[in-house]
Amino acid sequence: LSGGEAQRVALARALVREPDLVMLDEPFGALDALTRIRMHALLQQLCRRHRPAVLFVTHDVDEAILLAERVLVLTEGRLSLDVPVDVASPRRRTDPAFDRLRSTLLAELGVDELAEGDH
């Protein structure tokens, strides 16, 4: 199976019993960009249909904003930020609210976007 197909199977396996909670730890980390976008859409569709609570762990700030209703940041094992995702659906990276939240999250993670872009 390709990476995307394997992830589809894993999602189906996780949802087949209609659990109240689904935990996903970096489920799309090894996928190429296009497959990742398709998997985001599939996850959103499945969650709308099955309505589980989802704990989604990712190191991808944009992915967190695109998929989450709420983003938690852990710093040195402690909760350092807990913010709702107040970005209109469907979420777009070009939305100013998306950009503001992205900047807030990156700052909390110690990333200076302007300095990082100068390299």
Structure write-up:
It contains 5 helices and 4 strands; from the N terminus they run H-E-H-E-H-E-E-H-H. The chain has helices at residues 3-15, 33-50, 61-67, 96-108, 113-117, and strands at residues 21-25, 53-57, 70-75, 78-84. Helix 1 packs parallel to helix 2. The longest helix is centred in the middle third of the chain and has 18 residues, at 33-50.
Pairing-aware structural class of the strands and helices? alpha+beta
Quick one: how many beta strands? 4
Task: Summarize the biggest pleated sheet.
Answer: 2 strands, parallel
Biggest sheet: strand arrangement: 1-2
Which H/E pattern describes the elements? HEHEHEEHH
Count helical runs.
5
Tell me, rounded to a whole number, the average pLDDT: 90
Query: What is the beta-strand fraction?
Result: 15-25%
The shape, in one word, is globular
| Cα distance spanning the termini | 38 Å
Low-confidence stretches: none
- What is the share of helical residues? 40-55%
Radius of gyration: 15 Å
